[in-house]
TrEMBL record:
This is NHL repeat protein. It comes from Teladorsagia circumcincta (Brown stomach worm). Pfam families: NHL. The keyword Glycoprotein applies. One of its GO terms (cellular component) is extracellular region. NHL repeats lie at residues 1-33, 53-95. The keyword Repeat applies. InterPro entries: 6-blade_b-propeller_TolB-like, NHL_repeat. Keywords: Glycoprotein, Repeat, Signal. Gene3D superfamilies: TolB, C-terminal domain (2.120.10.30).
């Protein structure tokens, strides 16, 4: 995945999910982000849609703190497990807009 789909994009890749279309969804606990790579080799979907601020952990709607995994629903909504620091799951619409969150640290 790193050699063919995003060399030098990841700091500490952690979880990977492949959706029904063959896209790769990768969480990166080191950069506090997630990225999606298209099924076509070398296609990286613009990170502004699907990542949060690189190397800046946090607990608001604009930051993750060591996200661990991603689940993608058939309708295009996706869920990010932001578990190591924040103990929460965030729900996004297909465009990458945050629509809900569940859980909290503590």
């Amino acid at each position: 995945i790193i050699e063919e789909h995003g060399q030098n994009l990841f700091y500490m890749p952690h979880g990977i999910t492949i959706d029904e279309k063959g896209n790769y969804w990768v969480t990166d606990v080191g950069s506090h982000q997630h990225r999606i790579s298209g099924a076509q080799i070398g296609l990286v979907i613009p990170s502004c849609l699907l990542t949060r601020r690189k190397l800046v952990p946090g607990s608001d709607g604009h930051h993750f703190c060591k996200p661990t995994d991603i689940a993608v629903a058939k309708n295009g909504y996706f869920f990010v497990a932001d578990g190591y620091c924040n103990s929460r799951v965030l729900k996004f619409d297909p465009s990458g807009k945050l629509v809900d969150s569940f859980g909290a640290a503590g």
